[in-house]
## 1
Amino acid sequence: MTDHLSTHLRPDYPFEEGLVLPIDKPLGWTSTDVVRKVRTLMRRLGHRKIKVGHAGTLDPLATGVLLICVGRATKQVDTLQAEEKEYLAEIELGATTPSYDLEHPVDTRYPWAHITRAEVERILSGFIGEQEQEPPVYSAKKLEGRRAYEYAREGEEVNMRRAVINIYSTRLETCELPTSPRLTVRILCSKGTYIRAFARDLGRKLSSGAHLTGLRRTRSGGFQVEHCLSLETLQAKLSPPAPTVETNPV
């Protein structure tokens, strides 16, 4: 896919016929921000009514694989979104935040000196399989027609409905215990899995607290992050060539 894009992606590409653009979403951007950016690029190329959508939301504080569907490829959104995802999660033990990530400051601290690498690996293995997960209150889940985060920001109590997810594998990539409470975990999971909630549950199972300090989606279905396009590269490929200035021979 990437070789195809590198070779054939250009301003005169037949986008209406359909194209899946694997984008490496930058930090701080919402998934909708990326869709708007691609839609703007399409309009500059004259595709004013072309459809653009994404297959699988990434939080603003997450980076990595975001599949942008253009033209007829928007019909593939549900299929692409249903495929398994792989994440690299940076987690700090011993502290929680209301959003389970760095969107909010730490609200509670917990002991973590009792936690060992062996215990972390044992608990991680227990996450594998089908299970029910409670989504974060600060999420885009809809409750009675409103987003859950709207209730949370207004200070209202919210009862989140548990969702069935599947975690296929977990692997402890780095562990700074016992000198530091920081971990990096690779997680392969199903659609609908909240890695922020995974971090929350990991902390609880370790008789402590935990929150995400970084998150990168490294794969979505068959699309890997090392084969994704940056927005800068995409814009460069879709920029019309500068007009040639003819000069009169002397």
## 2
Amino acid sequence: MSLYSKIGILTLAITLGWSCTDLTTALKAQGLGNSPYSSIGMGEFYGESYSDNTGMGQSGVSTGSGFQINNLNPALWVRNRFTTLDIGLIGQYKEIVAGNKNQRNAGGNLAYVSLSFPVSPRWAIGVSLKPYSFIDYQNLSTRLVPETSIPAQYYTTGKGGINKASITNSVQLGRYVSIGLESSYFFGNVRKATDVSVPFSNSGGDYIVSLSDKTTYSDISFRAGAAARIPIRKDNKLNLNLGGAYSFSTTINSTHVRSFELTQGSFNVIDPDTLENNLSGGLTTPSQFQVGASLEWPFKLIVSADYSRQAWSQFRSFSGANDNLKDVGRIHVGMEYLPRFTSLNYFNLVRYRVGFSHGKTPYTINKNDVNDTNVSLGFTFPMGRGYQNFLSVALVGGQRGTAGAGMIRERYGRAVLGITLLERWFTKQKID
């Protein structure tokens, strides 16, 4: 690869890195579509999997192909022997049913930008930037003003989220074991508002009471991982892979601003007031562990199974509330198949994936658990000169919750598009 091409890739990565904050902020206004569940806790999570692992039911904490970055486990970044740039986009379509109400919506966002490069055969460093969670909801209800017979309309909204910028160090220990540490910086803000419209027929219009909250987040966190590749058959024909990752619970520093406004028509009844200004506090995130195992026939077939668990009982909002969230577990299974690595037929070089994931969410509605189940398909298409770059597509379809009394059911279709660019850097040139 020429020096100019290397500079071009670095420039692209740096430009994307600097612009991702503005890009995610702009797209986050739309988010991934209206989600009533995002009003609880920290909102919706994007997850750590990139496009290839998403197509395998978000499994793969124990194995890395070396062709794409496996972000489920920091210990697997060292498997990438090439300088690797991964960029991903995510889109989602959702149908929401609550009682006799039905809504369809869609949204999209940047999924991730990552750059990994090997410092030595046993050490790799990576940087990444991705959205971590999002809040995107809007609800309208009508009920009586307390201690009166006057009906009022309550309109609640929430927008925003938390982003994560990370540096990953991954090291190979001996022949079979690798370890890794991801150091991350959380940043972002969330805006929530409640507008109450109270009708007064003998006046110049309805009274509108508005209460707005803005919370800004910034702090660091850590995620560690380990992986082992154990040969079962000689000549690297079959491997048993074991892996695990642990995300540490952390309290993210937060500042909070709350304002109040009372208007009638387009005029202020009283001057707007700031009730809380830059009040300091914290948001405690849940710890999470992931463990997994897989059987790998190199350059042919991978079958993986993972289990993950999040300790949502540790969660505390800015106000110190837990929102009645509970610890939950989830299973992930997936398979990747490569027909023939040495074939001249293009479709024999395409990697095909299928996956399944099921688990409980931390939410409880009317004493009923809210489950989430999905299936996935994935494809990785080689492209470019020598087929050393890749275009990956993951398609996910699932359902969360049920349509029972007082419940909310979400049926969703999700797509993740990933682009992977590979090159050899830091290689000494030889002259024949």
